User: Fold these one by one.
Assistant:
Number 1:
Amino acid sequence: MGLLTFDNPVFRWYAVAAAIMIAKMMSQAWITVFRMIKVNGGFRYPEDAQKGPANPNPRPDQLLPNEYVERSRRIHQNDTENIPLFLAAGLIYVCTAPPEMLAVGLFSAYVLSRLAHFYVVLTARSHELRATCWAIGAAIVYFMAGATVWTALKY
Amino acid sequence: MGLLTFDNPVFRWYAVAAAIMIAKMMSQAWITVFRMIKVNGGFRYPEDAQKGPANPNPRPDQLLPNEYVERSRRIHQNDTENIPLFLAAGLIYVCTAPPEMLAVGLFSAYVLSRLAHFYVVLTARSHELRATCWAIGAAIVYFMAGATVWTALKY
Amino acid sequence: MGLLTFDNPVFRWYAVAAAIMIAKMMSQAWITVFRMIKVNGGFRYPEDAQKGPANPNPRPDQLLPNEYVERSRRIHQNDTENIPLFLAAGLIYVCTAPPEMLAVGLFSAYVLSRLAHFYVVLTARSHELRATCWAIGAAIVYFMAGATVWTALKY
């Protein structure tokens, strides 16, 4: 029987965790846009420093990097490096028919660790705190990948 | 019954949309390579500015950023931030057993919005046009993520 | 019948290949961290150049780009542009019910081509060798995307 259906509670938890992570990562683009509007700069496209409805008073220095905007771009980059791996590893992990409590714990911990990572980077907390949040998410993805290989080897 | 099979017309439409987006994003790398060859620069790896079959007359300034090449890299980065989310959100959305017409509309609109976004960035059109194309794709991914959570909550 | 189960040998091979690629890409972050520690620099976050347990003797030049660290970041970026496409294309390809020998060959060749690409970039080999390794992986993803469209059109 296929396990990738909403009849399977583990898949339902995965689907909700995945939807939250997808919405979170997509929203990072809006945060970058919000910050570019707020500082009126940090643009990357030369055409964005042209006169237009969204930019009535263009200046060449609008194309210079702005740390406030770059911080949002780095969070986006970190999401890009991590969240697709969770989406794929989690889906395959659902197919290993894991115990529901374990799966729920892993999916919840992943989502919480990423939201904590987001907050820690946004507010420029210490490197140690950022690394801890990130490492929890990484460990969960490694665990799910390991469980996948383990399940495959049992056949 | 599993919905992730080619017997399910919604999955077939998803699979075709996904294949187009995968081929599109993969092709962006070739466009970057084409542009690096055309301007004979914009390289990022120091070893690429060494003498070799692909670079008979190396120059140190081949490693400087080149806007024509960087534009292709930014499109690639935008794909990287967006297309994996569509691939995951769309697959889970198929499992919610959506109405076929709605699903086909969403998948088609996503593909068209991304191809339009590609054209708009490649030809350096206005920020407003680029933002509109991007926002359509983002809205579709949000909608699919929302439908996923909604379906899970109904159980 | 669903094909996305561990009872399907093609899915098992996909799951193992996916797990290896997920673990590989996740590990690239650790390699970047290792290199930042080794050169005590190449940081991107201003807060990382502050005094703390991980950085007892901060210097402003720790925030300058460092080629040894940037090389690891470029490998990570290349993974980010490629591996999620393999994960998605491979999963959909499993649903096309391909011949097992062909699927095993494609998945194995993909994993080997990416590990070779990693080694070639890490050791700064020639552009030609790097391009060849990358192109093999790209060709496999294109092939799987094409097989997906072909299967959908047969219905």
Number 2:
Amino acid sequence: MNDGSCFHNLKAGGIVRELAPGVTARVFPGVNAMLSVVTLEPHSTSPVHSHANEQWGVCLEGEWVRIQDGVEHHVKAGDFWQTPPHVPHGGRTLASRCVVLDIFAPPREEYRQAGQGLGAASLAT
Amino acid sequence: MNDGSCFHNLKAGGIVRELAPGVTARVFPGVNAMLSVVTLEPHSTSPVHSHANEQWGVCLEGEWVRIQDGVEHHVKAGDFWQTPPHVPHGGRTLASRCVVLDIFAPPREEYRQAGQGLGAASLAT
């Protein structure tokens, strides 16, 4: 359902951002938090980066290699994780598609508009 | 998976709180946000209440009648919603069990400890 205000569905809507090749987000901004439904195509890479915003991720479909603080975690649907502020994180898919719900608190201000890339995050070097 | 730190699974763990009869939460506190996996038994009621914390809910399993700002919304798995600060909200299940992922930003401080009830929320009168 989507009545145009506070009610949405994970499958539709949101502000579209291409975070990386094959990694697309649909963003739903709030006041103190922001939700982002991220679809990751097979064999795609999310560059390791960091930001001051706390982040949580919930694997909704498929599986993913979550890279966090230099460690690889093989996560599957139903797994979820906290990424504290400033902790470097990214990931890569395997042979299948993956869907992850990201939660940012506070919101990532750059993600309030459609566009490309990881916004003001610091990329790992 | 659960490595004892930042990685969890929706089916296990967390700080247990009984929010209302038949409504049980497993709470995962963060810095700026808090996640809570809420299991609602059939024919259970979540009393309408409000608080300053922004809240988001994601219906993970089943269906629910979400009551928000005086309006009833019949939500199903895959639906999600924002509840802005101070907006009265609650709900009731129908004949089946429902699982909802609640997200609070900032965290509800009372929910950092096991216990009962809706904490410092204001109940509707």
